[in-house]
């Protein structure tokens, strides 16, 4: 049996990955997560669990921790919605890029055979739409692309590196507050308008998959047949209009979904950017430029990932309902 080390084991992806690997009965699993320790009954007793901040550990301590494992899964870092103090580019680089590059080097020292990174599907759109200059405008996307590139550059000398570009992931972790709670609060306050074009037609959409599917994809990526590569994952492409209606139905709110033209949307985004500026903060996704992405179809065709990683069908719409019903 092989051994998997999951950084971020109590998060949505790490929790699903722990179960997926253990359920195969082909892997031992060790997780490492930030405190606090979850309440009794949340952690899978089949795995070993450690808590702390790996960035505070010495290289020797990390190598010792990794010794005896075969696969490293990075399911940590800071997400795109965090608004740090300026400069955001430096913040996201330090939070998301430097740890991945450094841990990959230490994983090689500890003789692990594979390092798998969970990163963002924005990397796919950066390559698809170079004219939008996403890495030059959005600090989070800059760091995400750098994170993937630097990891793949670490491939070799006994270590295979794989990057999984994830879309929006829906799922629940027992006794944990879902990351969609902020979205739900704003929807209650009617702060999520529906964006329409000059013909009053709803625009924009995104790709979604369940945490269970991500766990299965990680098991697939751990297979020895998978070499160094980036995969763009996904399952259900859902318009912004349909997603809002599904969330609203699950929340049982009567809030009317507002409609807003691109010009009105950009005016709202400028106010948000100004508020951040006054607070000395900077968003990972620059508000005004991000309106361009909000009105596009951020859809994915994941056929290559499905063929190689072999994750299975799941009911994304049901999970969206379950997530918002839990709030």
Keywords:
327 residues; NAD dependent epimerase/dehydratase family protein; Epimerase_deHydtase; NAD(P)-bd_dom_sf; Rossmann fold
Write the layout of secondary structure elements.
Layout: E1 2-7, H1 12-24, E2 27-33, E3 48-51, H2 59-66, E4 71-74, H3 88-109, E5 114-120, H4 122-128, H5 134-137, H6 139-153, E6 160-166, E7 168-170, H7 181-188, E8 194-196, E9 205-210, H8 211-222, E10 229-232, E11 236-239, H9 240-251, E12 259-261, H10 262-278, H11 287-294, E13 297-298, H12 303-309, H13 316-325
Parallel strand pairs: 1-2, 1-4, 2-3, 4-5, 5-6, 6-10, 7-9, 8-12, 9-13
Antiparallel strand pairs: 9-11
Helix pairs in contact: 1-8, 2-3, 3-6, 8-12, 9-13, 10-11
Protein name: NAD dependent epimerase/dehydratase family protein
Domain NAD-dependent epimerase/dehydratase: 4-175
InterPro entries: Epimerase_deHydtase, NAD(P)-bd_dom_sf
Q: Can you characterise this structure?
A:
This protein is α/β, with parallel strands linked by helices and 327 residues long. It has a domain at 2-167 and 211-233 and 301-312: 3-Layer(aba) Sandwich (Rossmann fold), CATH 3.40.50.720. The protein has helices at residues 12-24, 59-66, 88-109, 122-128, 134-137, 139-153, 181-188, 211-222, 240-251, 262-278, 287-294, 303-309, 316-325; strands at 2-7, 27-33, 48-51, 71-74, 114-120, 160-166, 168-170, 194-196, 205-210, 229-232, 236-239, 259-261, 297-298. The strands form 3 sheets. Strands 3-2-1-4-5-6-10 form a 7-stranded parallel beta sheet, with helices on both faces. Strands 7, 9, 11 and 13 form a 4-stranded mixed beta sheet that branches. Helix 2 (59-66) crosses helix 3 (88-109). The longest helix has 22 residues, at 88-109. It comes from Listeria grandensis FSL F6-0971. This is NAD dependent epimerase/dehydratase family protein. Residues 4-175 form the NAD-dependent epimerase/dehydratase domain.
